[in-house]
Amino acid sequence: MFKIFEPSKIFLITSKAPKYVMVLFAVVFTIGLLEALIFSPEDYKQSHSVRIMYVHVPAAWISLGIFSSITFLSLSGYIFKNKNFFLIAKSLAPSGFVFNIVALVTGSIWGKPTWGTWWAWDARITSMLILALFYLMYLVAWRIYEDKEHVLKITTIITILGIINVPIIKYSVDWWNTLHQPASINVLSKSSIHSSMLFPLLIMTAAFALFSLLIFLMKYNTELIKIKNKGLDRL
Amino acid sequence: MINEFLKMNGYGLYVWSAFTFTFLSFTTLYLITKIQYVRERNKFVSKFGALDSKRSQVARSQTINREILSSSQSI
């Protein structure tokens, strides 16, 4: 059923793809930066500080998306007994963690001119910090556990516990009174953000997604070569 | 005009530091991943070179091993 996920077949694509993804990322990121820093208008309330949104929001979205994917892959790996799913999940984690940190730090920088403080223990910010801790636990678990079966079990448990936090992050601004503003973009209803700001935001999101794809491909290739190195030792 | 662009109505420090932090994080992650990749690939090439002809033939029969050896990607 999952013959398409055989590492040897995937490597044929993943070994060649990074250079094309890198070029695409450079083009989209350059357009995104021009839009975010020059062409998009300033906000009537927040003035130019609103431009921080173009790095903060895509980073937060992608870190949440990657964690959800890692959980889905880990569970699928367990259900279908396919170790390659775990390898894909492991290769996604570093970029998810970095995006999480970028979201926290840029959010903190944005908080100072907007709320007058770098940090507040409000529901949205605290739940994002908890997500970063789950990412950290996941990455550390892969580093410290040598036993393969043991690490698969532990990382899956970490992702299952961590995924409970994802809807809390999403709905924290609705469930509690927070400093953080409610969502401006809704898939099911009309968004409250103007198209002149939405367009650069979507371009930057595409650029960030391409960057995480690039890191994923490089990391996945590294993991496959690591396995092949062990294979050569056994010959 | 450039001065105005950099100052951004007094918010320049916040905006530029957010973008700089993002850019530095991306660069660091890319370099770390690249170094890890090159290290593993070099290890593979040197291990492969140390194999005797019989084992080398067995290893070369796997498509993925041939791909690793031939991949000279400039990522």
Description:
The complex is a heterodimer of chains A (235) and B (75). With 235 residues, chain A is an all-alpha fold. Chain A is 77% helix and 0% strand. Chain A contains eight helices and no strands. In chain A, 40% of the residues are buried. With 75 residues, chain B is mainly alpha-helical. The longest helix of chain B is centred in the middle third of the chain and has 38 residues, at 12-49. The two termini of chain B are 37 Å apart. Classes of the chains: A mainly alpha (235), B mainly alpha (75). Chain A binds chain B through residues 7-8, 11-12, 15-16, 18-19, 22, 33, 37-38, 42, 47-49, 51-52, 55-56, 59, 94-95, 98, 101-102, 105-106, 109-110, 112-113, 211, 214-215, 218-219, 221-222, 224-226, 228-229, 231-233, 235, and chain B through 5, 8-12, 14-15, 17-19, 21-22, 25-26, 29-30, 33-34, 36-37, 40-41, 43-44, 47-48, 51, 55, 58-59, 62-65, 67-68, 71, 73-75.
Largest interface: A-B, 48 and 41 residues
H and E order of chain B: HHHH
- Helicity of chain A, as a percent range: over 70%
Strand content of chain B: under 5%
Rg on CA atoms of chain A, Å: 20 Å
Global shape of chain B: rod-shaped
Share in helix of chain B: over 70%
Strand content of chain A: under 5%
**How confident overall, as mean pLDDT of chain A?**
90
Structural class of chain B comes to: mainly alpha
End-to-end CA span of chain A: 29 Å
Model regions low in confidence, pLDDT < 50 over at least 5 residues of chain A: none
Order of helices and strands of chain A: HHHHHHHH
Overall pLDDT level of chain B = 85
Shape of chain A: globular
What's the number of extended β-strand segments of chain A?
A: 0
Oligomeric composition of the shown chains: heterodimer
Tally of helical runs of chain B: 4
